[in-house]
């Protein structure tokens, strides 16, 4: 679907991206790179229907002659609808010649993350005037081993029910303002049938493969 946006706000976000701490090897750096502004030039130019019609006339004539006009453009991936549950999947492999190699590097991630710098200024389910879209960590999946074999374990937080989250999931209502603090609860490490209580610092030091956050506000 192609829609016409105001050029002044098309690439604007709910919060200033320049204030981010873009430490290499952090989840903020990953999100910033994923949502960065890209220039489409040369062989990546965008096919422009409006430019083509201006140059060659109505579309019915264009298809028969197969003539199109391509133009330089800008592209940016931003969040237009803040989800109740945020799932972040880290790419833990890289190409090494003809082989795939696992990436074991630790990626820093917080207990509370603000998605506002990665949301479009017209994000659909964020109340007008809000400049924060906060999420609290409640689950982590970790993989140990290689690309050929290994073992999956998980960290999960046992916590009280989030009524605001239920309203968002069931009724689509925007959550009310809450404290910008992690949802209180006890973390557990789960490996097959073995379950052990662990500290939050233990969770944050894990080599995350999947991260699960629930929306606070």
UniProtKB/TrEMBL annotation:
Would the keyword Magnesium turn up in this protein's UniProt record?
no
- Domain of life the protein comes from: Eukaryota
Task: Give start-end of the signal peptide.
Answer: none
Q: Give the Gene Ontology MF terms in alphabetical order.
A: cysteine-type deubiquitinase activity
Does the keyword Hydrolase feature in the UniProt annotation? yes
InterPro entries xref list: Papain-like_cys_pep_sf, Peptidase_C19, Peptidase_C19_UCH, USP, USP_CS
What cellular component GO annotations does this protein have? cytosol; nucleus
List the keywords (alphabetical).
Hydrolase
Q: Name one GO biological process term.
A: protein deubiquitination
Stretches assigned to the USP domain: 1-216
Classification via Pfam families: UCH
Q: What is the protein name given in its UniProt record? A: UBP16 hydrolase
Specify the species: Fregata magnificens
Its ancestry begins with: Eukaryota, Metazoa, Chordata, Craniata, Vertebrata
> Which gene produces this protein?
Usp16
């Amino acid at each position: 679907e192609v829609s016409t946006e105001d050029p002044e706000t098309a690439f604007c976000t709910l919060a200033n991206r320049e204030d981010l701490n873009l430490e290499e090897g952090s989840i903020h750096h990953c999100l910033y790179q994923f949502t960065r502004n890209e220039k489409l030039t040369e062989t990546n130019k965008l096919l422009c229907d409006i430019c083509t019609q201006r140059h060659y006339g109505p579309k019915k004539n264009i298809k028969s002659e197969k003539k199109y006009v391509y133009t330089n453009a800008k592209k940016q991936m931003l969040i237009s609808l803040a989800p109740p549950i945020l799932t972040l999947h880290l790419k833990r492999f890289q190409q090494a010649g003809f082989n795939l190699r696992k990436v074991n590097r630790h990626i820093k991630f917080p207990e509370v993350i603000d998605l506002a710098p990665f949301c479009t200024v017209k994000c659909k389910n964020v109340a007008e005037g809000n400049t924060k879209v906060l999420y609290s960590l409640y689950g982590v999946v970790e993989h140990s081993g290689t690309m050929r074999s290994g073992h999956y374990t998980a960290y999960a937080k046992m916590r009280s029910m989030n009524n605001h989250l239920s309203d968002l999931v069931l009724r689509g209502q925007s959550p009310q303002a809450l404290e910008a603090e992690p949802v209180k609860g006890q973390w557990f490490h789960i490996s097959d049938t073995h379950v052990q209580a662990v500290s939050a610092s233990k969770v944050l030091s894990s080599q995350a493969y999947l991260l699960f956050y629930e929306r606070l506000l």
